[in-house]
Amino acid sequence: MVSSEDASVQTSNRYGHGPASLLDKAFRSSSIAADSRTHRVPGHTSQVDTLLRSSTTQNSRTHTLRTPTSLLNTALRSSTIAEDSSAHHAPAHHALVDSFLRSNTPPNSGENHVHSHTSQVDGMINTSTTTISASSSQSLERRARDVEGFRLFTMAELEAATRNFSGRNRIGGDVYRGKLADGRKVAIKKKMMFQLLLKKKKMITSTTAEILSRLRHKNLIKLFGYHEGNDLRFAVYEYVENGSLHHHFHDEYNGDVLSSWRMRIKIAFDACRGIEYLHYYADPSISHGHLKPSNILLDADWTARVSDFEWSLVSTNDAYEKARSDDVYSLGVVMLELLTGKRDVAEHCDKTIPAPESISEEELKKILDPRIGAPMLKKETKAVRLLLSVAKKCVKPNSFWKMRPKVDSIVSELGKALSLCGGSPDISSGRIPVIAEHSNKAEEFPLHELVAATNNFSPDNKIGVGGFGVVYKGTLADGREVAIKRSESNSKKKIEFEDRLSVFEAELDFLSRLHHRNLVRLVGFCEDKNERLLVCEYVLNGSLYNLLHHKNKGSRLDSWKLRIQIALDACRGIEYLHNYAGHPIIHRDIKSSNILIDHNWTARVCDFGLSLTSPGYNSDYRPKKAGTRGYMDPEYRDQNVLTTKSDVYSLGVVLLELLTGKKAIFKHGKEEISLVDFASTSIQIRELEKVWDERVEPPRHHEKKALYVMGDTARLCVRSEGKHRPPIDNIVAQLKEALEVFNDRE
């Protein structure tokens, strides 16, 4: 669902210095119209005005300018804003004007293809870079099937869903509630093409849609698809029941929702979690660019979910720190609004709000929203002060943007604040629906393409064996390197094939719905008679198991910092599964051979063939036991008790592998011994040096602290009873603390 509020320029400016607000300032003094009046627009925006007043193409043909759209198209055919780079060096965000105008250039008449203009600006790519002509819809439909649930809608479908855009279905502004033929409730946002330029809005196009459709997080709104005509653009979003934070704050104050400080802090925490996912765990990384209360929606469980990605930008390298900092500023403004109930606090925050640590109880009471008043409990007061402290750091002026905190540290602080209020940072409910049709989720390959990609499944291309089958390295016809998982087709028993089919369906289902930089991505699949193949991205450096235990001396990991970083990456991938993928997912087969290391030495969890949604949501379901000896939770192995803490046990074993360099089960003299039994006691009695991997240079004095943090975390993870093991978010926090020991010394 999208915002029901079309904010004015002044409203947009309050929530940040991102591309939206910068363009607002540039356009404030000029109304770009279709007539020939002269406009004096400061700076680079005058180029837009020049283009709009241009009405003659280079080949001197005369065009009748009947609509604003045709005026834009004519102007664009005759000029390119950025062709003369020596004469015109637009600042990064103003170059978005160029990218937007280029994206509206129509394909040549009669041609059936997509024009793609990627505007790279200081390491950023405008997500709205491709304009699709009406004649290219079939081509886009083929691309659209690669993304789960994403599709092009016809105008007839949208009219039927909204009862011809009935006033009764209008939520606010140009947003309509609708119901699709398959029963899904949606919110449909309508924009005229020329409005998009006048209001500095970008249109949703194929590149945007493909990126957004891959995003899966409980604190983000899902994009289902879109429709575009000659002058109108429609984006079809997931509908959420309880509207926007802005609506509850200012249009119709809802005391039930906002009358508790715990709930307000929870909303801030949820929104920050959504932005954290975009910044650090979406692949590629994304900055939102236009965060404000009307773009924070509340679902049926009153979970806050970030929406409206019309200004979102995709990073191609590390040069987009400023854009991420702008998102942090906007988060700070939202936090101040949650605290004070006022809209215009951020700009004068330094003058009007004292430092939270020195503010008196009376001063705090004056600052806080009078509709809720000061908190009554000491812990709650401490939580509110913590929220205020974080908010003030976020809204440092633009000249000090580098001093604003990173969103992951904000999440950590708000998690503490929420705990003080008696709330849990990680609350999940419900069950993931089973999706039967896989053709809408991933590219379907014919078998002959995968045969060619792997040299007929040559033994030379074999790179491993997973829960689903043998894994081969392959090169597709377009040059992409992939890992192809093939189920053996020569089974003697039908039941064996049915078991493999179940694993295939499970892995395809999970992979097509998950998107996180610490999880391996699905590319596509193949079903051909008895053949079942999964096509995943190829991860360059292979498995953690091979790097740790391979006999090749050059393959081992010789840095404690890197080992802790790998542990943190793997735990973040599992944290996403347990807490943020929608509803809890249990991997069931976490081990070092299912953790792959990419070209940047980032760890990525793979092999979801045995994964399940949490059985707590279906108490009658008792799956067959699955897992790997040495990594398997003893409660699950002996009592068939399966919870997310089963994954925590397996992660603990992986942490011990990273610390000791030993396998989960290894030979000690003539006997086999469990790594858990070997290492736990030494860690507990503070004799870690007896078991750490001697192939790595001994840690310096300050680094020992980091290893003990990791060791203690591992020891807690492998406790025999699940109820005594830490939750995954605590493990992530501990490993972040361990890694900071190294970062602080650099």
Automatic annotation (TrEMBL):
Ranges in coiled-coil conformation: none
Keywords: ATP-binding, Cell membrane, Glycoprotein, Kinase, Leucine-rich repeat, Membrane, Nucleotide-binding, Phosphoprotein, Receptor, Repeat, Serine/threonine-protein kinase, Signal, Transferase, Transmembrane, Transmembrane helix
Annotated TM spans: none
Keyword Cell membrane among record annotations: yes
Binding of ATP, residues: K485
EC number: 2.7.11.1
Top-level taxon in the UniProt lineage: Eukaryota
Gene3D superfamilies: Phosphorylase Kinase, domain 1 (3.30.200.20), Transferase(Phosphotransferase) domain 1 (1.10.510.10)
Predominant localisation class: membrane
Cell location: Cell membrane
Enzyme kind, highest EC tier: transferase
Composition bias, Polar residues: 1-14
Pfam families given in the database record: Pkinase
Catalytic reaction equation(s): L-threonyl-[protein] + ATP = O-phospho-L-threonyl-[protein] + ADP + H(+); L-seryl-[protein] + ATP = O-phospho-L-seryl-[protein] + ADP + H(+)
GO terms, molecular function: ATP binding; protein serine/threonine kinase activity
Region Disordered, residue ranges: 1-21, 102-121
Membrane topology: Single-pass membrane protein
Residue ranges occupied by any Protein kinase domain in the UniProt entry: 160-418, 457-739
Record InterPro entries: Kinase-like_dom_sf (IPR011009), Prot_kinase_dom (IPR000719), Protein_kinase_ATP_BS (IPR017441), Ser/Thr_kinase_AS (IPR008271)
GO CC, alphabetical: plasma membrane
Name listed for the protein in its UniProt record: non-specific serine/threonine protein kinase
The species this protein was found in: Clitoria ternatea (Butterfly pea)
